[in-house]
Design goal:
Bound molecules: coenzyme A
CATH architecture of one domain: 3 Solenoid
Order of helices and strands: HHHHEEEEEEEEEEEEEEEHH
CATH superfamily of one domain: Hexapeptide repeat proteins
Strand content: 5-15%
Number of strands: 15
Number of helices: 6
Largest sheet: 6 strands, mixed
Length: about 260
């Protein structure tokens, strides 16, 4: 049983190491990676929390926070092969749910929208995000509210996510918006969450489209103005009588 656990742990460490180009050996990983220490502590804290040893759970969680700079509430549910790289400043709330093979970088918050407002009514309510399998959250990103980030989705560094993110999508910015990505990259983990596929920004595409329409409209306006000029020149010509005919003659009763 212990051997099986050790084997499982080794596989977990290998999968985390595969997500960090800087990791060299398992020993280095076990000794020096705060994300690994925080995960191990969380497993203890969560076990205590589930047995309703709430203070013990909170105590282990706080101890881990002092040592690693990573704050994980003992009530948070975390799947297998969870990897927090660098870690400092990560906060994971009580009702957060995290699937398998999820990766977080430093400064990420999985938080509530307004925990301080009417907090009594929020007790025991789902108020933190759910991250499905394979999600990657870039450094400094804030994912807020009981929203779901779909399987394999990626959140850009420093994004603020307050709405659902569909599976396989990449979102960036404040508030986070979707940028498309090459679907063939979905199953492949790329360190730091940066796929190599082309990811044109939909806002930039919309602006390009609008610029095209404006250019077309300008062309139409110029064409209409030219027609108008031609028409008024023609009207002027027909309204002005020829010089000879206009000149009064004696026969026509003019002065003379
Ligand atoms: C979001 C991310 C995964 C996108 O990578 P990508 O698919 O290769 O996308 P690109 O670099 O081609 O960028 C696509 C567009 O999104 C913009 N963009 C990319 N990341 C962004 C971010 N975090 N915030 C705002 N805009 C971003 C780019 O400027 C580009 O805009 P453009 O089309 O107007 O030129 C990546 O940029 C990212 O933020 N990864 C997290 C990295 C991280 O946390 N590193 C910490 C390691 S210690």
């Amino acid at each position: 049983m212990v051997l099986m656990n050790l084997k499982g742990l080794r596989a977990e460490i290998d999968s985390m190491m595969a997500r960090d180009p800087a990791a060299r050996t398992r020993l280095e990983f076990v000794l020096l990676y705060p994300g690994f220490h925080a995960l191990m502590s969380h497993r203890l804290a969560h076990a205590a929390w589930r047995r309703r040893w709430r203070i013990l759970g909170r105590f282990i969680s706080q101890l881990s926070r002092w040592l690693t700079g990573i704050e994980i509430h003992p009530g948070a549910k975390i799947g297998r092969r969870f990897f927090i790289d660098h870690g400092m400043g990560v906060v994971i709330g009580e009702t957060a749910e995290i699937g398998d093979d999820v990766t977080l970088y430093h400064g990420v918050t999985l938080g509530g929208i307004a925990p301080s407002v009417d907090s009594g009514s929020q007790v025991d309510q789902k108020r933190h995000p759910t991250l499905k399998d394979g999600v990657i959250i870039g450094s400094g990103a804030q994912v807020l509210g009981p929203i779901t980030v779909g399987e394999g989705a990626r959140v850009g560094a420093n994004a603020v996510v307050v709405a659902e993110v569909p599976a396989g999508m990449t979102v960036v910015g404040i508030p986070a918006r979707i940028i498309t990505r090459d679907k063939s990259e979905e199953k492949k983990f790329v360190a730091y969450g940066t796929p190599s596929g082309d990811a044109p920004d939909p806002v930039a595409r919309a602006i390009d489209g609008l610029r095209g329409q404006v250019a077309e409209l300008m062309g139409r306006i110029e064409e209409l103005e030219a027609r108008l000029r031609d028409k008024s020149a023609g009207d002027d010509a027909s309204a002005t009588p020829p010089r000879d005919k206009a000149r009064p003659t004696a026969a026509s009763g003019g002065k003379g």
